[in-house]
Amino acid sequence: MASTGVCLVFLAMSATISLVLGTPPYWSHPPTCYSKALDMGRDISARVADIKNDPETSYCADHMPYLYFDVHNACVMETMRSFMTMVDRMRQQRCGFTLRVRELRSKLGQLYMIIERRCHGDLVFTIDDCAALVRG
Hints:
- By secondary structure, the chain is an all-alpha fold.
- It has helices at 2-21, 33-53, 58-61, 76-89, 99-118; strands at 66-67, 134-135.
- Helices cover 58% and strands 3% of the residues.
- The N and C termini lie far apart (66 Å).
């Protein structure tokens, strides 16, 4: 009985500390499909910017636009498909085989599958502006 009381006190203290420090408790909910798509979209946008600015890959990525993922945009799937094709065509040049480019292609494929299969019906498309997803 005493061990149960100690466990309850520990849980109460850890929850209070988490709230005070602003960190979520260890039993918080797993990410939703929506939050996963948002996080991966931000990561992919940052990776594209890195590839365009990296001296090792910039010469073959200069034709690629900067990518801005908005999961509320109805054009997001079409834009991802065309961007994956652009990344695949980078393999014709040496920089297409660098680790950063391969990781970008992998992340694009993962996000595409997540949105297409797992998030189907969970995402609400409020915008239909394909030009807003790519920036020159």
